[in-house]
Amino acid sequence: MTGSQNSNTKGKIVVIYSGGMDSYTVLRQAALDGYEVYPVAFNYGQRHKKELDVAQAVCDKYGYPFQLVDVSSILPLLKGSALTDDIDVPEGHYAEASMQQTVVPNRNMIMLSMAVGYAVSIGAEAVYFGAHSGDHAIYPDCRTEFLDAMNSVCQIANYEAVDIRAPFIAQNKIDILRTGLALGLDYGETWTCYKGLEKACGKCGSCQERLEAFELNGVKDPVAYF
Known about the structure:
The chain is about 35% helix and about 10% strand. It is built from 6 helices and 5 strands, in the order E-H-E-H-E-H-E-H-E-H-H. Helix 1 links the parallel strand 1 and strand 2. The chain is globular and about 50 Å long.
């Protein structure tokens, strides 16, 4: 599907869209399902800013009203992560303890709070984000307990209740890719690598998890690697 939105819309939703394959699948599936999607991305000072350029390009292509919010001024408050500090991005499998160096303190709560405010302001019924089961071991703010608690808060935080939905919270990246491939999505339109170089490194945990998902789905990753 090309063009702005599905003509048989179900209603407005905000999608936290990083440009990665998980949030890309959430965004594109929601649009194809008939939701009027409002993607929002956040520049919080991450080193892999290339993902934001990819997100912008996808929204331009499909006509989605993209919002890029610069919250990089909070960077001094978010110390100790390889994604924001001068710390080497760890290499190896995503489940290894070293990947905890990629945790950005309270990132999802910060982004969800602003996305909910955006949802209230435009009359959207929900905020979607791409947390999945493969994140559970490393990221506390991608777990079911966090989702349930945030959803409860967002039912009472405004006069208008907003749902928090993570469609893939019980699935892994292999499942997400399988869903997207069945929809005919082009994963050459995504960026996953934490290093944000000209090509994907293929060595960081994020790349390793992505490559494993493509291998187990029997498909070649369309993204270029070093």
